[in-house]
Amino acid sequence: xxxxxxxxxxxxxxxxxxxxxxxxxxxxxxxxxxxxxxxxxxxxxxxxxxxxxxxxxxxxxxxxxxxxxxxxxxxxxxxxxxxxxxxxxxxxxxxxxxxxxxxxxxxxxxxxxxxxxxxxxxxxxxxxxxxxxxxxxxxxxxxxxxxxxxxxxxxxxxxxx
Length: 161
Fold this sequence. Notes:
Keywords: Acyltransferase, Transferase. InterPro entries: Acyl_CoA_acyltransferase, Bact_Acetyltransf, GNAT_dom. Residues 5-158 form the N-acetyltransferase domain. One of its GO terms (molecular function) is acyltransferase activity, transferring groups other than amino-acyl groups. It is a single chain. By secondary structure, the protein is α+β, with helices and mostly antiparallel strands. A hairpin with a 2-residue loop joins β2 (62-69) and β3. The strands form 2 sheets. Strands 1-2-3-4 form a 4-stranded antiparallel sheet, sandwiched between helices. Strands 5, 6, 7 and 8 form a 4-stranded antiparallel sheet that branches. The protein contains 6 helices and 8 strands. It has helices spanning 15-29, 31-34, 38-45, 50-58, 99-113, 128-133, and strands spanning 5-9, 62-69, 72-80, 85-90, 118-123, 137-138, 143-145, 148-156. 32% of the residues are buried. α1 packs across α4 (50-58). It has a single domain (5-117), classed as Aminopeptidase (3-Layer(aba) Sandwich).
């Protein structure tokens, strides 16, 4: 039987673990996207410093959450009040154990409660099938940002009756 995943809001005390989860997810889980190009990896990782994560936690327009598997932090997600999901990273050794699914459901729920009707994100090639599984579809041609190709995706977010 698979262990259950719990999601909780991130706190300032989590900045270090959030940074480590993002870094491991990028270095190992997204290797096909960056092709182990040290410049691309370092540029991508530099976007998630502890100070930057702290600023996101202080921003009321952002929501960061942590996925726990057997009480161990294994994933991080972030949504913005404008309907953008900007982070969904899981430790590579915890792939396919439900953490990513739980993060996406939680982020979409947070957006739904705030009346957001349309969610958008940029997917790497590695994550595209994952997002398609949740109903996301290509919204525009692929983009190249900082040497990394991403695919803009979107999905309508049904509101509760």
